[in-house]
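subagent[fold] <- orchestrator: predict structure for attached chain, return tokens only, no commentary.
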Amino acid sequence: MYKIPSVNNGNYLVIRLLAHSSPATKIFNWWTMKLFERENHFHPCCGFDLNSVVPKVIPVVQFAIMKLGLIFLILGIFQNWDSLQQDKVTNVSSYHLRLICWGGYGIHIIVNDSFLLLLWKGCHSKNPSLVRVWVVATPISIIWVVIMMLINISRLRWVSGVSSPQIFVLVAFYGVLQCYFVYVVYFYMKEMEVDIFMSSTIRSLTDAEVAEFEQGISPPFRVQDLDTETQSLMDRIHYERYKKEDFEIERNKLQFDMDNPLGSGDYGKVYKGLLQPADGTLVTVAVKTVNPESADVICFKALLTELKVWTYLGSHPNLVGLLGACTTEIRDRTLLIVSEFCALGNLHCLLVGCRGLFCNFVNNNGILQTSTLNTTFTTEHVSTLDLIRWSREIASGMEYLESLRVVHGDLATRNILLTSHKAAKLTDFGLARQLYNYSVYVKKQNTPLPWRWLSLESLADMTFSSKSDVWSYAVTLSEIFTLGEIPYPGHQFCLEFVYDLKAGLRPNKPRFVPQEIWALMERCWKKDAKIRPTFSEIVQIFANIYDFSSDSQMGL
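subagent[fold] -> orchestrator:
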């Protein structure tokens, strides 16, 4: 089981507040999201760009407030001068209290102007340390001036003609406004720190980082002492070396047309290519490239980890096979990953494209009509039997990953590829990439969060396990038996969605799903992950419900 480290930004901050907060805090978070939500991202500045508001607006407004306060101070001194002289003779304590309040507020104006200068310099020089000084000092300054004003309300008259209730309103407004400014500048400072961090990762890999991939990290114990029965591959992969002798491909043995990609993703593109192995025959392959401009060092290292995991997965009929990789230029964040070519592309596109040619064998009661199984149809058609077979094959591939204690982390029909014989194969074992995306990369690149497929515990705690993959598997079945319809249509990613999941919201029953598979899907969506079935149990359920071996029409 893997947990994402806490990062106070974007949607992840909101979900963390949901998971660990009191009812009153949840109400405040709901109101905050309603007020500040824009394009599913958290905006403390009501949707305005922090890079525009903080450096330009806040210092000016703060300066204007201080100068307005200075005017009030001077007016107060002049209008109460006679009273001050009278108190000097008749009420010495009131006299000294007036001097303390006036002097204290004067000190506040001078100090605040100094901190404003630090804020202005920090914003324009992109120096979060200077901004942090303002963030820390301003609350102290707020407390100081509020105390001075409260003393004025209770004991003195600050300005002639201004009543205590009016001053109280001014004090309250000033305190709330200053606290909001601190709130906005704090988020701006965190965003600045992330920007600086991200810019520092646009570089070449160091010798140590290359060695870490090729040789593995030197563990405080012998690698052979690792308990492979109980320790997951993800836990020990950093100690393993890249099996270069088995998977390294010479660049001159690989050909592909970079002008005609098969598809593209967040970090690169996929091409159809030709590989010339040692026997000289040409093999059609898929070539995945990584764009150095999209993948910074941390992201690239996550992709290298994913590649290394792939090299240790072995072979399975329902996993896309890794043929090799070109890693000679990884120092410059350039990588080619060569895998088995799946001619029919991803399952989602095929499901959407076959809607007009679909042969449904399930009646309105969810019963599979065995009398229609001998119906003759062309290979272009897709039937309920194909959907059932793909569901079983996906579960079989996931059972294999589960046996290796590998979490997929991004199971969906878009990550299921089909061979020319319509066999389903899992690809994009995205956990390493997920761990990275949810921490920093979501903040920088606005990478879409696959929230429709994520389990309740993944959304609430960013916890991933084989049982969270089981939840995603059931959502994938929902896609399959609706012929590619999007799960949870009409819903948006926000706090209400997670509340609804906790309250029992699940995808609707697909139109073409047999009743037995629907019952399985409902078990996969149990709130308590411990009572969800394992993939081994799911494979056995399919074997018990359908006799795949005897029915040639199933294509198994």
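orchestrator: received. Logging for downstream: DSSP finds 19 helices and 13 strands in the chain. Residues 164-200 form the longest helix (37 residues).
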